[in-house]
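just leaving the lab so this will be short. what follows is a protein written twice so to speak, once as letters and once as structure tokens for the fold. can you read through it and tell me how you think this chain folds. thanks a lot i owe you, the record is right below.

___
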Amino acid sequence: MLRMSSNHNLIWAVDSFACGSISSSTLINLLKYVQFQREDDESGGVLLGYIDASTNGLLIENATFPGGGDISSRTSFFRSHRHQQDANKWISQSLEKKGTQLGLWHTHPEKTPLPSSVDLKDYNNVVRNSILNSGITYIIIGTETLGLWYGEEPQKLMFVGYYGVNDIITLEDSNE
């Protein structure tokens, strides 16, 4: 289940299994990479934030973004090692150094995104070799909806829900 909170954070939950939120500023930054045009390549990065001590909720407050070293095309994206360096820098500068990596994000050039076989292989690799302090939040941003999945070893990636890209873009417009 995905829903927008009164402070414009995107809130999610998987039954009583896991929960979290994505800050409105992070959402707005992620949506800058939606592949609206045919010439737009896939983009992606790492999700960063905190684990709430009282609820174990995953609070996504930032992300890494495409840049030098990444390889992308219309239908693929390879994260360079720079994302890990950027994540480590953010974590070392985070509040009381309690920041952590919470997942991955990338775009797809389809209205309602679904994880591809490459995405599922990437998820399985990250979960098996994880330095994450939690399960993994996996976001795929399509041209009309943002999809969110959650998983942790040894479980498969679980679908959480979709939220409309235009609803989030409208949120950005109302904040200006």
Notes: The first strand starts at residue 2 and ends at 4. The mean pLDDT is 91. The helical segments are 24-30, 82-93, 117-128, 165-175. The radius of gyration is 15 Å.
